[in-house]
Amino acid sequence: MLTFQVSAQNTSMLAPNLPVLSAKPVLDIPFFPSVYFPEQLAAIRSYEKSYPHWVSTETEAKIPAYPYESSLLLNNDVLAFYGHPNSTRMGILGRYSIEDLAGRLDKLAEEYRKVSGGRGVTTAFYIIYGTVWPQGEIGIINEETLMRYIDYALEHDMLVFIDHQIGRYDPVDSLKKMLPYLRYPNVHLALDPEWRTTRPMKEIGSVTADEINRAQRVMEDYIIQNKLPGDRMLVIHQFNVNMIKNRSTVESGRRTVRLVHCADGFGRPFLKRDSYASNALALTMPIKGFKLFYNFGIPGAGYDNPLLTPKEVYALNPRPYLIMYQ
Predict the structure, then answer these.
(1) Is residue 62 one of the residues assigned to a domain?
(2) Which residues contact 141 (CB under 8 A, 6 or more apart)?
(3) Does residue 130 sit within a domain?
(4) pTM attached to this predicted model
(5) For residue 309, is pLDDT > 80?
(6) 29, 45, 74, 286: least CB-packed within 10 angstroms?
């Protein structure tokens, strides 16, 4: 529910019968149905633009398709540690305590700030919410475990991404299972097409552009209907051209959903840059992310050799807004 201050003498331009509570009344104006009144819509947009969280990123500002100036990414990039809290094989997140992870993130964030060109760096936990099992079944993370990370992040001004590997299920249905966590203002969502398969580790899965578009619509409807504050990110991973079918028809620029297109995959620097360059061709998804892989010496596990430095990551074109380490 959007609530903002207007002076008493200006209330006449709004729809009739809105309450005047004081000389400087607080008007409780939901986006719907007030969106149908031009004066109210103008007032809401003015209110939104007065806050830095409602301003476009540098990339979005150049894209006419973005009708609303709303982004969490105006002044900050996001730096995340990825994995499953209960697994040492699925990323750095499961190898350290929450407190140790936060400390390591802070140190790494300082390295990025030194070469960020003045942009801030916000830290985040990137948590595997739904893990694909044989035959494409999904194991959902224990809620108590997940809430420990969400609560810690809320207390320490961090973000949380929860990521569904989809398996044999519909991507939109998978997304719907995560929507209730958007009631926490620091939570964002992700879908990983690689694991949208009944044969994990044997074939690379995929989603369609239509499924991504439907997922965004469902997510935006949920945010608006539940009057959740701010805008939220929806991350889609890709490292193989077949992982997003009909990619050129993916839409973005929704009012409350920031679609982030993340280059996944491990390897030597030239392979990482090639993968990112391939993702960069998807112009309808202008907000990019980049994933790096630590070498923990796990037999059979892939890793980057060597890791790109923060300066090299920022030299990617276009510059990534979300950077994560597995």
Answers:
(1) no
(2) 84, 85, 86, 127, 128, 129, 130, 131
(3) yes
(4) 0.79
(5) yes
(6) 45
Strands (E) in 183-231, as ranges, are: 187-191, 207-208
3-state SS assignment for residue 62: coil
The pLDDT of residue 73 is 87
Residues 42 and 93 both lie in one domain: no
Mean of per-residue pLDDT scores for the chain: 84
Query: What CATH code is carried by the domain that includes residue 214?
Result: 3.20.20
Q: For the segment 100-155, what is each residue's pLDDT rounded down to a tens digit?
A: 999 999 999 999 999 999 999 999 999 999 999 999 999 999 999 999 999 999 99
For residue 20, the model assigns a pLDDT of 34
Query: Do 33 and 98 have their domain in common?
Result: no
Q: Are 6 and 43 in contact (CB under 8 A)?
A: yes
Per the CB < 8 A criterion, the answer to whether 210 and 255 are in contact is no
Q: Single out the residue of 244, 242, 243, 167 nearest to residue 198, CA to CA.
A: 167
Question: Residues 272, 313: contact at Cβ < 8 Å?
Answer: no
- Are 87 and 185 within one domain? yes
Q: Do both 41 and 92 map to the same domain?
A: no
User: How many structural domains comprise the chain?
Assistant: 2
Point out which residues pair with 132 in neighbouring strands.
Answer: 138
- For residues 22 and 167, membership in a common domain is answered with no
What's the start-to-end Cα distance of the chain, in Å? 37
Residues 44 and 82 in one domain: no
Q: Does residue 59 sit within a domain? A: no
Cα three-residue angle 293-238-111, rounded to 5 degrees: 40
Structural domain including 126 reads: 76-325
pLDDT digits (tens, 9 = 90+) for 246-271: 999 999 989 899 999 999 989 999 99
**69 belongs to a structural domain:** no
In terms of Cβ atoms closer than 10 Å to its own Cβ (0-12, 13-18, 19+), residue 210 is: middle
Which residues touch 153 (CB under 8 Å, ≥6 apart)? 124, 125, 159, 160, 186
Question: Which stretches of the chain are assigned E, i.e. beta strand?
Answer: 2-5, 26-29, 76-83, 120-132, 138-140, 159-164, 187-191, 207-208, 232-238, 244-245, 257-263, 288-292, 322-325
